[in-house]
Write a structure and sequence with these properties.
single chain, 516 residues, ten-stranded mixed sheet, seven-stranded mixed sheet, 34% helix, binds 6-O-phosphono-beta-D-glucopyranose
Length: 516
Amino acid sequence: MDPAERVSPSAKCSVVRPHEVCGIESPGPCCMVVFGASGDLAHRKLLPSIYRLFARGHMPDDFAVVGTAMEPWDDTDYRARMRDAVKEAAPEDYSDEKWARFARNLYYVQGEFADDAFYARLKARLPGIEAEHDTHGNRIYYMAIPPTVYEQVVKGLGEAGMSSEDGGYTRIVIEKPFGRDLESSHRLSAALGVSFTESQIYRMDHYLAKENVQNILMFRFANSIFEPVWNRQYVDHVQITVSETLGVEHRAGYYEKAGVLRDMFQSHLLQLLSLVAMEPPSAFEADRVRDEKTKVFTSIRPIPEGRLGQYVVVGQYGAGKMSGKAVPAYRDEPGVAKDSDTPTYAAMMLFVDNWRWSGVPFYLRSGKRMPRRAAEIAIQFKPVPHMMFRGVLEETIEPNTLVLRVQPDEGIDLYFQTKTPDSKVCLSEVLMDFAYERTVRLDAYERVLIDCMLGDQMLFVRADGEEKTWEILTPVIERLESVAGTTELPSYPAGSAGPAEADALLAREGRRWREL
Ligand code: BG6
């Protein structure tokens, strides 16, 4: 039966005792150097996020933003461009008066990342700006550049002597993807390690900063009633889904080389898995939490090479309809090769081989052009051990499910059985539904910017964890790429829930994916 039909009226949860002291922490003074200031990320996300923090009073009083890129701009050009970007991306917070106050903190240094003279120029310019804005020697380098040039910029900064800390902090933010396989991620870590220590490196995965992802640890470890059943004795399996309605958009250049496993699984999905599967850390501290995550990655059973098909299904979207509108196949998207074998969908079965999770499958799936935008983690509990209603009830009783909804409607759903009123023996599945009754105040970018300024690495990926995730995925990716072109890549129509082969992955074990 369709879950929508099964579930009767929902019981809403409301906040009974909010904690009053919780607010957004205020970071201290800081100068942020944005590499790639003319790029898409800086325009669409980064500058608007810094501006929004400023407009809402969360930036320190003393701050500066120094944009760097190849464009022959000066400070005035940069400010004008960024004003347009902010107006477009953060119209609700924009006002000319606020912008004028914000823009006084923006500067621009032009240069080519391959040119040593650029780093010398930047190095010479920064102290004046930092003195003017009294940023206490605190500096953040934000890599809003293609991952292919990370190493070059990191090397340039190191060789120019700009990675050291002198009175304040020096931090560097890089965004996923951190390399494209185990070897390249090693190279990147090694390049970073030449000039920066791990405590200076902030590897950002914006999924970790989503509100209900941060909530996973609170939910698990600030309640005593869930943890006792959070294990192989009670959990049948776990489903982690990140489905997108968007196609490849204008990112074919990157996506063609990445595909869904590098783009979504290596960091986003495996990070979610680690939060669900990890043991309680001894303290709510960045390194204690990251230790536990790494242990989960270490415990993931390698996928047997000869039996890949039983563990992994990939697919690519064909033409289809999204909200009634025809959309092209992936291979007909601009910039995509007509014979592309890049997967836009993957489903995977993983096992965490440890005491808690032995034998419990974790099913992960993610795809583009799916019917609904959703990110959620479903903990599917086992059926009751003894069916005392057998012979009285016609239907089988659906086991309990707990769903952590990450987006778009952040919240938590608990499905359970209740007696249907008036009937002697009739059960209804009901839904207890907790929704965050507020629009999220900090988006993921704003959260990580604040945490980076505060020096809190909890929501950032540590080198050992990153390496382990590549160890899990690299053999899978290599194997799939080695047979690309020789075997037919399963296709799914845009707007559908993925290839039929992905259903078979669960059906073999008598399970099915949650409806999208
Ligand atoms: C990015 C991927 O990391 O995450 C994109 O590169 C994907 O391909 C995006 O679309 C999804 O993020 P969100 O926050 O929209 O779910």
